[in-house]
Structure formats: structure tokens, C-alpha cells
User: Fold these one by one.
Assistant:
Number 1:
Amino acid sequence: MKEFDIKTKIYFGPGALERLEQIPYHRCLIIADPFVVTSGLIRLILEPLEKNSAIFRIFDDVVPDPPIGKIVAGIQALTEFDPDSIVAVGGGSAIDSAKAIREIAIQTNPNRIRLPLIAIPTTSGTGSEVTSFSVISDPDNHTKYPLVSDSMLPEEAILDVELVRSVPAAVTANTGMDVFTHALESYVSLRYNEFSASLAEKAIEIVGSYLLRSFLDAGDTHARQKMHVASTLAGLAFNASGLGLNHGMAHQLGAQFHVPHGAANAMLLPHIIEFNSQITPHSKSRKEYDHTVRCYVTLARVLGLQNFNTITTVRALIAWTQFMMKEMDMPINMSSTGTCTQEEYEAAIPAMVEGALADACTVDNPRRPTKHDVAQIYRALW
Ligand SMILES: NC(=O)c1ccc[n+]([C@@H]2O[C@H](COP(=O)([O-])OP(=O)(O)OC[C@H]3O[C@@H](n4cnc5c(N)ncnc54)[C@H](O)[C@@H]3O)[C@@H](O)[C@H]2O)c1
Ligand SMILES: [Fe+2]
């Protein structure tokens, strides 16, 4: 038996933030990215809450790749303020922080009442507003691991394009390629189903049409609106199907070297598609191809990459990911990130291999990787 449901109620389109005027909560802990506060974007959240006569407190001690220490600080803020709801505003880091703060607060104090969570993304990337995942870092052990539980799903998500206008080009590129990776991994995942696949296909179609437009022109509201929805569609897709080795390996690059999550995913994509499809530039045509290869071909066609045969179409998909990285000035390998020396990188590979194989995302990859496979991909990434 299979199951598919969407637990998070989604408000979107023009005026979506007006939902905050209607929420039946009046004491909100706002967990926000510091940029949202310093830039003044927070007014877009506070004004409707004030109209709703809500009292609020802002916790903005949120950092990228949220470490466990900041989650503890958030639980303290929650305990002191004693809210009736949590409003998370920011990118994946702020929303993941809010999910972990609520989850761990309940686990460490079973008498605490479960608070509703309203997630309001300010990047178009992680889909965290509709997923059961929260990715937390353990800086002492240089590791990053996804917590996964349906109890972390936000009750509501609000998608308002007004919050993503200010996203700089580099973050648009990284988060956009994160959306693409979510949809692609979901589509070939061992746990895919027809519902997750249809969401992933639509997300890929939108990325193909609107990611470059969003990158090239920050003022292209139509493109930004589309990418904001694609991010949530891809989140819904992978929440149902799981992800794969790409994310399992990217988490280690984030934990060890603070490579932005989407950039880490993007540079891995050509290697992972090649590993999963077993189609290299030297491959010869076969009579039949497995399910994963057929999925890659379908997605290549969704992107408009019509090509001669299966091999050239899968190679075209790989070329498309490389083309997007070039167009959006993204690092194509670890050496071009400037985050570490080659010696530091190579020294970290054994720990990253262990971490990637233990990562909760990797288990859904369509081809089971060995330690040797993962080490080889990390080495090729330099
Ligand atoms: N929970 C999930 O399902 C899930 C899925 C994928 C990734 N993640 C995690 O999410 C995190 C990455 O999230 P992200 O890619 O959204 O980045 P992020 O939240 O770390 O933000 C990236 C940068 O963009 C800035 N920013 C955010 N919104 C902005 C805006 N509107 N204008 C200008 N700048 C803005 C932030 O201040 C930050 O400097 C990682 O920790 C990753 O592992 C979670
Ligand atoms: Fe991701």
C-alpha cells in the first residue's frame, strides 16, 4: 500500500501575506533570517500581524546551515515568550531552525503543547515550508544531518513574491539549482510514485523556463513568482518520494566547507546523473534501458532537450546542468569554490564518504553506491 497526502495548507499568489491578518493566533514567536529584520522586509510580516492584534517576539539568531547551538537558543526564546504559534520567515535555514526548535522543544518537554507553525519562505529553493525535513549542523563533528519526521511539517505555508524580490543573483542561482535537484532526485527516487512524479515534472518545466529569467532580471516578477511556486512543488515531490545520493553528498560539502547548499548540489549533478544512469561519453547504445535512464530522458524532454537517442539525451541533460552553472557563474567544482585547499579537501574525503552513506537522503537513491563509488565522485569533484 502506498500513501500520498499534503498536510500543509498553502496560501499563494498576490496578497498571500494577508493570511496573517486572519490567523487564529495572537502570540507569535517569529523565527527570522537576520537579513529579513535588517533589510526591513519584516514589516511585510509585522503589519498584517498588527492588524490581527497579535503580540510577537522576534528571534533572529539564525545562521546558514543551522547548528544545534542556535536551536537550543531558539528553544530558550520559545520557553521565555510562551507563544501560541510560530511564524518562520527566511530561507531554508530559518524555516529548518523553526522546525527543529519546535520539534526538540516538544521532545524535551512532553508537557509542552504543540504549537502551529506557519512557514514563509524568502528564497525559492528548499521547499522546507512543505517538508518533514530539517537539516541541522553539528559543527564539532563537521557533519550535517537531516532530521525527518512528519511532526515537523508546517501547518501553513505562505508564498508571496514580495519576499523574494531582494534575493541576490548568486542566491537565486544556488536556490534555483536546489529546486532542480529536488525535482530530479525525487523523479528517479526508489520511492517515487505518480503523484510525486507529476509534481516533479511541473517543477522541472518551470525551472527550465524561468530560472535563468529570474537570475538575469531580478525585477522579473512573473519569473520569480513561478520559481517560488516551483520550489514548493519540488518540496512536495521529494517529501513524498525522498531524495538521493546527490543530497547525501551535498550535505557533507555544506558541513565541512560551508559550500552553499544549492551550489553543492549543482556541482554534483553531472556526476550523479552519470553514476545513476551509467551513461558516460563513451557509452554505446543498448537495446533496453532501466527505469532511471528512462526517467532522465523524460525530464530532458520536459526541458525541451530533444535529442537523437537515449545516450545523447541523457548526455544533453548533463550538459544542461553544466550550461546552467556556467550561465549563472556558479562554481563547477570544489577547487573553484575557494573554500579549502586540495590537501584539506582530500583529507576530508573519508569522513565525507561515511557521512554521505549514512545520510537519510542517500537510501532512496536508485543505484546503491559503495564507499569506493562515493569516494571516486568526491575526488572527481576537485
Ligand atoms: N528542510 C528541507 O526540506 C531542506 C531542503 C533542502 C535544503 N535544506 C537546507 O536549507 C538550507 C539552505 O536554505 P536556502 O538555500 O534557502 O539558504 P539560506 O536560508 O541559508 O539563505 C541563504 C542566504 O540568503 C539570504 N536571504 C534569504 N532570503 C533573502 C531575501 N529575500 N533577500 C536577500 N537575501 C536573502 C540569507 O540571509 C542567507 O545569507 C541548508 O541548511 C539546507 O541544507 C532544507
Ligand atoms: Fe536541497
Number 2:
Amino acid sequence: MFKFVDEYRDKDLCRRLAEGIIGISKKPFTIMEVCGGHTMSIRKNGIHKLIGSNIKLVSGPGCPVCVTSQKDIDKAIALARLNNVVVCTFGDMVDVPGTSVTLAEVKAEKGNVRVVYSVQDVLSFAKNEPDKHFVFIGIGFETTAPTIAAAIMQAKAEKIKNFSVLALNKTMPAALKAVLEDKDAKINALISPGHVSTITGTGIYKFIVDDLRISCCVAGFEPADILRAIYLLAELRENNKVSLINAYERAVKENGNEKAKYIMYEVFDSADAEWRGFGVIPASGLRIRKEFADLDAEKIFKIDVGASKEIKGCICGDILRGIKEPKNCKLFGQKCTPMKPQGACMVSSEGTCAAWYKYGE
Ligand code: SF4
């Protein structure tokens, strides 16, 4: 383990790892990098071009904005159209096309959408502007759910009545199972998400190794982290072994962050959730427990959005399932660009289409 981040970007080290990967990879092998942060790093550093032709890297469902279903985007938009309600969300979400408009367009029309950096900002708004109701759009995986849970607990303790959360948070294991059991995807190994693993620990991947017989390697986000993970997975494959490896030892422990998990499940119950591209995946989401129902936007407001529709031609869902790539989309780089995104994967700073557009194929 190195001491400084620059050491994980060392060109000679990366070159040696890449040469090692090419040297040991004799069989065709598809690795899914689950996390959008990994996708960005791979494209930015050209890792996919350094590892030879036997290894293919495909992106997975680890970008929180991208996997938010069209219906859930429409729910956020419906909330923003209510009088006296202010919808607060992270930056990327405002530009994701809903069925008819984006949150950014509602903001331009009504002014009641605010971009925030943290759910704590929303609690401050609620305290300072008691005449408005503030709804935070809770997206993300196990990484962000504990801080949202802590904010809900704080609002309850401080009796903040004009704050609620539209809980769209998701959890990884069931979605990974859906990806790996998908016959069209044909994934041989996973680079497991680093940030999620800091909270969950590595234990959540054991079923993938034990039951599905697919190797997983938890990795950090620097080029040497990712190349090392690919090397370790390729080595397992060439030796016909299946294993769970933690190659992000500096941040991830086997049991993760027990306190964060405790807070998360004090506030949330496991629930079925709808994912873009997958439909409803059982036990893959987080629902606010009934003890906190007065802070649950779904319970406070009647949100009926009717039928939701994605932009015709957008294949974001297939990209998130690892069965297509941005180059397979007819709209990519033509009708769909970061300046005029047609789907969530082009909007998000962790989206696969955005990564391909920014750094090239
Ligand atoms: S390029 Fe745009 S339209 Fe095509 S899949 Fe990606 S986000 Fe969707």
C-alpha cells in the first residue's frame, strides 16, 4: 500500500501492470466495472486501451443518477410543480430528461428547484424558511444512504416539520445479482464499487463468489488501483479460480462501517425498487420506515405521475445492464451530447455515455 495518491498514478507502475495483464490474459474475458467512478477513471486514463484485446471492460449499474427510473424522475418533477414546495437535489439530477420536462426547466419556470451539495443544506433551508416545504431527492447507494438517514433522524429530533425526503436510494447486491444472471450480459468478473464497499464491507459480494462462481475485486479509483484489480482478476481467471479480493485495503474493511450501516437501517427498510433498464428489482431499494413517515415525501404528498416514457432511441437501460455500449446508440454524439442530453447516462458526471463523449472510445 502506498502513502501518497501520486504513487497510484505512477506511469511506470501502470505500464508494468498493463504489460503483466497482457502477458497473462490468454482467454477472452469480460469484466464489469460496476461503479460510474471507475468508468470515468478507466476512460480518462485510457485503461481500456492498455490491457490487450482479450479483456473487455463494460460499465455497470453503479451510477446513481443513471439508474434512477424515469418514473422516479417524473415524481421529483411533479413535486417541484407543487406550490410552496422546493425540491432540492444534487447537480446532475436537474438535467435528466423526464417524460416531458427536466427539473432545470421547472426551475426556470417556477424557481423552486435548488441544487445542493449535501442534505444538510436542505435542513438549513427548512430552518431558515419556515413558510416553504423542502423535499430532498434521496438518490445513491449504500454510500449516501447513511447521511440521508442521519438527516432524517436529525429532523425528527429537532421537530423540523417542513422537510422531507423522496427516498430513491438503492442497494447493490440484488442489482448485481440481476446483472450477473442476465444471459445477455455474459460477465466473467466484477470490479466491485469502492465507495459502496467502504460502508457495506466486502461481505456483500460473498454470494457472487460462492453461489454464482464469479470473481469480485474491490478496487480504488486511481489508475494503478484499477489496473491491479484487472491483473488480479485476470490471474484468477487464467488459473481457473474464483475468489473475492479486497484490493482497496486502504479504505475498505471486511465489515465496512458498522455505525453507518446501523444509522441507515434505523431509518430505512429494505424494499423493492425500480431501476432504469432493469424494472423492479426485489429488495434493491430503501424505504423510509413508518416511524419516520412524517418525513417521507411519498407519504406527505400524493404523487401521481401517470405513465412515464423514456426518449425514443435511448439505450441507457441496456448500457447499465452491460449488454450495449454508447457506440451502439444512434443518438450518441449526434442528437445526444452533454450540452443536450437525451438520457441519464449522458447527463451524469459518472455516466457511461458522458465518459465516452468526454474521453473518446
Ligand atoms: S447516448 Fe444519450 S440517448 Fe444514447 S444511450 Fe446514451 S444517454 Fe441515451
